[in-house]
Amino acid sequence: MPLLSARHITLGYTHQGSLTTILQDFSLDVAEGELIGLMGPSGVGKSSLLRVLAGLAKPLKGEVQLFGKTLTRPHPRLGFVFQQAVLLPWLNVRDNVSFGLDFKSQPELGRAARRARVEEAIEEVGLSHAAEMFPAELSGGMAQRVSLARVLARNPEVWLLDEPFSALDAVTRTEMQDLLRTLISRHNASAVMVTHDIDEALILADRAILIGNKPGRQIGEWQLALPYPRHDALLEMNSERVEILQALRDAHGHKRQVETVEFVI
């Protein structure tokens, strides 16, 4: 049984009484220890789908299940990493990581256990030296490390990530990609990561899924079996890269350039 599954998800919105469907009849199974890269151009419902998978929004149609039970609200075994770090500016790194661990929705932990979990998470993302620093003192990469630590401290079984490294420079992005893959593997977690970057999906994912068309639907899927790390193996995955680009062009018309749908190559 998959840890997380989505069945026949349809998403849309109503404007002036007219319904617009953005994603139609999408299904997904996430296995234990699997990292799925969810790709596609802007406007096909990737981020909206991620919010539904997190229990933060409801679909027009379909159902999400976590551990075989219908998901109707956020669950402590799901962790969410946003595109921006979303840190509380008046709290230091340690307090940002620990924020919410004592909420009723979280598993009950004693104060000492919470403190130990926070310190371990901060150490795992390489920020022990910065635990007393405030968000205004952090670089973009450091701030996103805090976001990863905040999720890590909750020990989720499934991570949901919405383009978490898109605002970072190339060098920092590479470091963060390696860190994420290490954390996911070390804790045997599963993950669904939204990305516009084909190379990022090829570098990180066990399985890459492409959404395209209007309304959005799955138009391709690739199993990626090369061992990690893969930064030096991108040339070996060039055939998959070409197939993804071709599938996107086929879905949106040959005359339309990939760049016009804001898909990074």
Structural write-up:
This protein is of the alpha/beta class. It has 7 helices and 10 strands. Helix 4 runs parallel beside helix 5. It starts with a strand and ends in a 13-residue tail after the last helix. Keywords: ATP-binding, Cell membrane, Membrane, Nucleotide-binding, Transport.
- Overall spatial form: globular
Largest sheet: 6 strands, mixed
Number of strands: 10
**Helical element count?**
7
Percent in strands: 15-25%
Question: Helical residue percent?
Answer: 25-40%
The low-confidence runs, each spanning 5 or more residues with pLDDT under 50, are 255-265
Mean pLDDT: 89
The spatial strand order of the largest sheet comes to: 6-7-8-3-9-10
Integer-rounded radius of gyration: 19 Å
Which structural class should the secondary elements be placed in? alpha/beta
Element string (H = helix, E = strand) = EEEHEEEHHHEHEHEEH
Instruction: Give the termini distance in whole angstroms.
Output: 35 Å
Can I get a quick summary?
This protein has 265 residues and is an alpha/beta fold.
Structure characteristics:
single chain; 265 residues; alpha/beta; 6-stranded mixed β-sheet; 7 helices; disordered C terminus
Topology of helices and strands:
Blueprint: E1 4-15, E2 18-30, E3 35-39, H1 46-53, E4 61-66, E5 69-70, E6 78-81, H2 93-98, H3 111-124, H4 140-152, E7 158-162, H5 170-186, E8 190-195, H6 198-204, E9 207-212, E10 217-223, H7 238-252
Parallel strand pairs: 3-8, 3-9, 6-7, 7-8
Antiparallel strand pairs: 1-2, 1-4, 4-5, 9-10
Helix pairs in contact: 3-4, 4-5
